[in-house]
Each structure stands twice: as structure tokens, then as C-alpha cells.
Design brief:
The chain is mostly helical and 130 residues long. Helices cover 87% and strands 0% of the residues.
């Protein structure tokens, strides 16, 4: 998934550079880095929680660890969301980036999910149900 996200970002940035301006392409790249970076941090945290939960020897400890991990994840999620919002606000207010390019870059993860979903549907429909 991470690889597809970076590949989509490279394709979108390349298209923005080919059909737009350098400042537009840089805004796309910056938005994509913010989006993919946030997704990567979220993925890392989920993997850490699963590792901590499955490392517990009995069911009660696993449930307690899962509850604690869920609370920690939600706190980190909201902190990351607020920080991302503040960074985006500062970028837009300072007029350092093209807003449309920034939005296009921020949609990188969504585009990657769509690409992967279409690929899974293609495999399911045309290569036999697995």
C-alpha cells in the first residue's frame, strides 16, 4: 500500500509538472508528502498495537492491552489531525503553495486506495474468484 501511495504521488507530481507549473507540482508533492506521511505514521501505530496485543499471554491481558492501545491510537490520531490542519492552515495563509495543487497532493492516499480496489475487483472478476 505504501509503495502504491508513493507511486501515485510520483505520477501525479509528474503530471502536474508536465501540464502545470513548477509551483503547482511542488504543492502537489508537498500535499502528497503530508498525506502519505500521516498514513505511514498511522500504519506504524496500528502495527505496534497489534504486536503489543498479540504478545500478551492470556485473553484478559490482551483485552486490556487492546483497550489501552485503542485509547492511545485515538489520542495520537487527533493530535496528528490537528497538527496537519495547523500546517495546512499556515501553508494556505502564507500563500506559499498553490491550494489546488495541495488538495490534489492530499488526495494521494485516496487515489491509491481506489487503484488497489480496482485491481482487486479486476482479479476477482476476470481471473477467477479466490
Amino acid at each position: 500500500m505504501q509503495g502504491i501511495c508513493w507511486l501515485c504521488l510520483l505520477v501525479i507530481t509528474g503530471g502536474a509538472l508536465a501540464f502545470g507549473s513548477l509551483s503547482f507540482a511542488m504543492a502537489v508533492l508537498l500535499g502528497g508528502i503530508i498525506s502519505v506521511g500521516s498514513f505511514w505514521l498511522s500504519h506504524r501505530e496500528v502495527i505496534r498495537i497489534f504486536h503489543n496485543v498479540t504478545a500478551q499471554p492470556n485473553l484478559e491481558d490482551r483485552q486490556a492491552q487492546a483497550r489501552q492501545g485503542q485509547k492511545g491510537y485515538l489520542v495520537k490520531f487527533w493530535v496528528r489531525l490537528v497538527l496537519t490542519g495547523v500546517v495546512l492552515l499556515l501553508l494556505v495563509k502564507s500563500r506559499m503553495v498553490d491550494v489546488l495543487g495541495l488538495v490534489l497532493g492530499l488526495s494521494t492516499v485516496v487515489l491509491a486506495v481506489i487503484v488497489i480496489s480496482l485491481d482487486v475487483a479486476r482479479h476477482y472478476l476476470f481471473r477467477g474468484r479466490r
